[in-house]
Design goal:
Blueprint: E1 7-15, E2 19-27, E3 34-40, H1 52-60, E4 64-68, H2 86-101, E5 106-116, H3 120-129, E6 135-139, H4 145-149, H5 154-172, E7 179-181, H6 197-204, E8 214-216, E9 239-244, H7 252-261, E10 265-270, H8 284-300
Parallel strand pairs: 3-4, 3-5, 5-6, 6-9, 9-10
Antiparallel strand pairs: 1-2, 2-4, 7-8
Protein name: Alpha/beta hydrolase
Keywords: Hydrolase
GO molecular function, one term: hydrolase activity
């Protein structure tokens, strides 16, 4: 375990009918019940890929952090592997929240959700629909799948769609999944082909063989029509949205609109690009400071 005076436990959380989420629980070194942040990664990401610095900072400031892998990813169960389902990922957040509410060491009135990149979709959805949250943090979020589609050149979008439809058709007949690479250099066929895609991959790959840079092609069909930005005005809790100044992956317009439309919305414009919020990035320390401050302020006056 890294980080002075912190404890990290490895646990399994029941999810769905018979699956389990693999999770880390970071605990601060202080007595009594503590506020808790439930955390997960973006598209194709696993908890070992860059989430520890955030969880460690939160824990060092008095917050427990429950960091989990979605079903089908990382050390969690679920078949096929590397399959993305928005419905299931939202269910996984709720499974982790339900588990956390049963724990005596956590203060259920001071419970937060945190998500980065694609998980920003889930965070906005949860802020609008999950009762009892003290706050929510969406970091460099994709909150409008249709707007994200407009970032993709037409020819590449058609090729990706063809792979996705072929994979979906194959699944009906029990064929093995078709996979696409997630991060690729510009000009190659993959989900993320921005100028900084390989920088992001270097920052988020755990480097221990626990992560593969691929996703089932059919997963892409679940993304484009999901638009939780429309629900931001219904957010029930304080919602911090961190928007990178030069984000080439997640369109910034919808994220800014979500921060504006949320009744208790807050905005931080981070320096640099989509991957500069992570360790090694241009604005990592500032993002940690802003997010920790948000948690501290809203744990003092929880929203019920």
């Amino acid at each position: 375990m890294t980080g002075d005076a912190l404890v990290r436990r490895e646990i399994r959380i029941p999810a769905g009918t018979d699956d389990q989420l693999d999770a880390w629980v970071y605990l601060p070194d202080r007595p009594g019940t503590v506020p808790v942040v439930v955390m997960a990664h973006g598209i194709g990401g696993i908890k070992a890929g860059g989430l520890a610095p955030f969880a460690q900072r939160f824990a060092s400031n008095g917050f427990a952090a429950v960091v989990f892998d979605y079903r089908h990813w990382g050390e969690s169960t679920g078949r096929p592997r590397q399959f993305l389902s928005i419905r299931r990922q939202l269910e996984d957040y709720r499974s982790a929240l339900t588990w956390a509410r049963t724990r005596d060491e956590f203060d259920a009135s001071r419970m937060f959700v945190w998500g980065t990149s694609f998980a920003g979709m889930h965070i906005v959805e949860l802020a609008a629909s999950e009762p009892g949250l003290a706050g929510a943090i969406a970091q460099c979020p994709l909150v409008d799948g249709l707007a994200g589609l407009t970032n993709i050149p037409v020819a590449r979008g058609l090729r990706l769609t063809a792979h996705a439809l072929a994979d979906l058709a194959g699944s009906v007949f029990g064929r093995p999944p078709r996979y696409l690479p997630i991060s690729v250099p510009p000009g190659q066929l993959g989900v993320i082909a921005t100028d900084d895609a390989m920088v992001g991959m270097a920052r988020l790959d755990p480097g221990n063989g626990s992560w593969s840079n691929e996703i089932t092609a059919r997963s892409l069909l679940d993304v484009t029509l999901h638009r939780p930005v429309k629900h931001a005005r219904n957010a029930r809790c304080p919602l911090l949205i961190v928007v990178a100044e030069h984000d080439t992956m997640a369109p910034t317009g919808p994220a800014l609109a979500a921060a504006t439309n949320a009744p208790l919305g807050e905005l931080y414009r981070s320096r640099g690009g989509h991957y500069d919020v992570y360790a090694g990035g241009l604005d990592h320390e500032n993002v940690l400071r802003v997010e920790t401050s948000f948690l501290q302020r809203h744990s003092e006056t929880p929203t019920r």
